[in-house]
Specification:
mainly alpha
Length: 131
């Protein structure tokens, strides 16, 4: 095989768009952390559900719904929530299997819930904007 063909095949393999998503997810996560967006979302989620029984698990549900529309990746959502809420949940006495199960389950469920919400929002928003 000529060297030009080998080089062309190597360059073509690197032009894979899913491979480009990984560094961009990391960049988006770092930008959100540095800008304080993730901390604000966690505080907002705690404000809404922190007083309920199972407080941090409820916070995880609301945070999952908020972050599901931002990242677009179930794996990114689960890892982000486990990283943000895992230590706090452990301090409050949640078991490690429960801490692992809640974000992983919610990261998958969000992709079924969010598409169902958009048709209702698209019907309600124009009426709210028009008055």
């Amino acid at each position: 095989m000529p060297t030009t063909v080998a080089i062309q095949k190597m360059v073509t393999a690197l032009e894979n768009f899913p491979l480009l998503a990984v560094p961009f997810f990391n960049l988006a996560g770092n930008l959100m952390n540095e800008a304080g967006i993730t901390e604000r979302l966690v505080r907002y989620s705690r404000l809404l559900t922190g007083w309920l029984a199972g407080g941090l698990a409820q916070v995880s549900i609301v945070l999952s719904m908020l972050m599901g529309g931002i990242s677009g990746s179930a794996v990114a959502d689960a890892s982000m929530e486990a990283r943000l809420l895992g230590p706090s949940m452990r301090e409050q006495g949640y078991s490690p299997p429960f801490i692992a199960a809640v974000p992983s389950f919610l990261a998958v469920v969000v992709f079924f819930v969010l598409p169902l919400a958009f048709p209702w929002l698209s019907l309600a928003l124009p009426k709210a904007i028009m008055g």
